[in-house]
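Quick bug: Putative N-acetylmannosamine-6-phosphate 2-epimerase output formatted oddly.
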Amino acid sequence: MSDGVLDVLRGGLVTSCQAYPGEPMRHPETMAQIAESAVRGGAVGIRAQGVADVSLIHERVAVPQIGLWKVGGDGVFITPTLAHAVVIANVGAEIVAIDGTRRPRPDGRTLSETVRDFRNESSALLMADVGSVADGLAAVEAGVDCLSTTLCGYTDERPKSDGPDLEVLAELVSTVPIPVFAEGRVHTPAQARACADAGAWAVVVGTAITHPATITSWFSAAVGSPQH
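Here's what came back:
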């Protein structure tokens, strides 16, 4: 897989099509339909999780897909091992997103070892989901193809901001030689524009587009509790 995939995504919107465990929309067909709708709306790429979802979306849409596999919900859980990364690549993800923090990985490999061994198994690109500038620098040293600010505010290194972590985004953009994607708490078009203005290669938006339960809760809270 060439860096041409990254060129396709440059300057555009990537829509994250994911549903939490136990939700009614947690189904590959539903996620694939949402992905198709997102592409109609102008998404240049899709981010999705899980073998079945990534596989079906690969069949349904022509745009590049950032695939991942969430295992658990604490610590290193975004495509946590080499084995998970290889499977996601094999079912059709052009880019595989992996935990790119400096935390211990479940299979005992370092991030550098994971990247090295992945290169022997697949031609897909690797995206490191990072939680800080230090994570990003270490991931670049490990040899990943691109970074995403996905985990900013979800590790101990950064406070969780109300919107995207523009500080980390801007510093990484000005420091590293590889593309940096903005992801995490991008809830409005204005915030997406701010990410683009900060130099993001592309902006990833999930909840604000594809998670009806959360979107409904925003409006419900604004309206107030119903009177009976």
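Actually, after a second look the formatting is fine. Residues 28-40 form the longest helix (13 residues). Closing.
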